[in-house]
Backbone:
């Protein structure tokens, strides 16, 4: 074996490694998109060790970057949120049969905290945020909790389902004066 053939193997390995580094550095400097198709760096990493290094295309023939699909808005607008709140109140009031309130007492407006699953069903039992201090108003509070359970699962309209993070926890006010309308 000659000196020339002994040097060829290390030089070839060094050239292959350098080409791989150049390709890797060139790919890293291109803009990336979160939802774009997989990049070519994944194919380089999974290449067989004995496979030749990939050849990068000339700079003027680079493929156009993929256009990411538009994301749905991450948050509801104020109008959408108000519309959802009105729908929820209307839906719960339709399930509510308010108990008679004492004539001499101030009207009790129950506030119930609800935690939902993405399908509109309750994740946890409803929680009365402001339990009545007057024992005469306890039947009203009980009727509110029964209404929430009667409406479970809440048939969440399709236009709000993608905004689950905004409606997964809600506090609903059960006002007997609103229910009487």
Residues:
């Amino acid at each position: 074996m000659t000196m020339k053939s002994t040097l060829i193997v290390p030089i070839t390995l060094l050239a292959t490694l350098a080409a791989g580094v150049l390709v890797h550095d060139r790919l890293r400097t291109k803009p990336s998109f979160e939802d774009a198709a997989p990049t070519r760096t994944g194919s380089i990493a999974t290449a067989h060790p004995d496979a030749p290094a990939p050849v990068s295309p000339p700079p003027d023939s680079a493929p156009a970057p993929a256009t990411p699909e538009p994301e749905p808005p991450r948050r509801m607008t104020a109008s959408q949120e108000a519309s959802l709140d009105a729908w929820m109140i209307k839906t719960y009031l339709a399930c509510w049969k308010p108990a008679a309130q004492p004539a001499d007492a101030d009207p009790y407006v129950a506030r119930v905290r609800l935690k939902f699953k993405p399908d509109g069903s309750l994740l946890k039992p409803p929680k009365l945020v402001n339990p009545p201090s007057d024992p005469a108003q306890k039947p009203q509070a009980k009727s509110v909790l029964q209404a929430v359970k009667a409406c479970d699962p809440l048939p969440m309209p399709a236009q709000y389902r993608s905004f689950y993070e905004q409606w997964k926890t809600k506090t609903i006010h059960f006002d007997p004066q609103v229910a009487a309308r």
In short: The chain has two domains: 3-61, 78-179. The longest helix spans residues 3-28. Residues 78-179 form a domain with the Fusion Protein Consisting Of Minor Coat Protein, Glycine Rich Linker, Tola, And A His Tag; Chain: A; Domain 2 fold (CATH 3.30.1150.10).
